[in-house]
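Annex B. Sample input.
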Amino acid sequence: MTRTARRVGIVLFQLGGPDTLEAIEPFLFNLFCDPDIIDFPFARIGRKPLAKLISTTRARKVQHHYATIGGGSPIRRHTECQAQALEDELRNQGLDAHCFVAMRYWHPFTYEAIEKLQASQCDEIVLLPLYPQYSSTTTGSSLNEFRRLFPNEVPFHCVETFYRNPMYLDAVVEKVNEGLSRFPDPDRPEIVFSAHSIPMSIIEKGDPYQRQIEETVRLLTDRGGWRNPHRLCYQSKVGASRWLQPSLHQTLRQLAAERAREMCVVPVAFVSDHVETLGEIDHEARGEARRLGIMRFEMSAGLNDSPKFIQALGQIVQQALGRAADTSIPIDNAGRALAEPEYAAAAGLD
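Annex B, continued. Sample output.
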């Protein structure tokens, strides 16, 4: 039978996460072996021994984070649900869509997604990293890995950011409103936007992540129309080098010093609930807030497979398909750095 409609493959990229406590160390080893995260002179010789040393040490430190959320990361489950929902959304729009999940550091790995993608015989491909904002350490790394492994010359459409997409913003606003609705007076709690931190050395080399995070907060507050006070902070810092600040811990202490009694944390750089939201914010930060005297603490839920977010992804894919395709994979290398091991350690939380 001859196909008459174009078949489109959509690859959804995420960092991935260990699905069991035993998987934490090999997951971290894979992360520390990433040349887009850890690079230094003679790295080809020293990267694997260094990765083994750091992953062994770091695994013991982060194990309790995963233990508090059930013993493993839910990010694969959430991402596969997103992929299936997006495939259904696009097929309902008349597109012969086939969605695949490519995790950077754990199953299903990028090569596993590529094997399925090749078997599907797609006519063109949309590369969709599920990081709303661009960083060389996330989007850049995922797309570079795909470029290294994918052998075919098939037209590509590449999505590098989507934080400005109105439907995406509406999906986040919806989750924030749900979180605020759990307070006696939704206009009263402080809204704390929290994003994953990265070393300042990466920002100083041109990475646009900080600027895009700050723009995301401006767009959300304009769109949400909240009367609540709000602020931005960063989480997951590790080591003594300079990172984006203020940290979530610093912000909690500052709010307590200001006698704030209610706060709603909004994870602004993630599209799925995982260890950094469920463990680091909803468990660890919640306990710290209680000890500091903050009486009411809520976190807005991840987008996961919310209908509005899936509609946003559908729009993003259709817009990408409307642009001219390129047989190469455009990678924005601005900000690619000789990243300190501290960043990778933090990213290894999930």
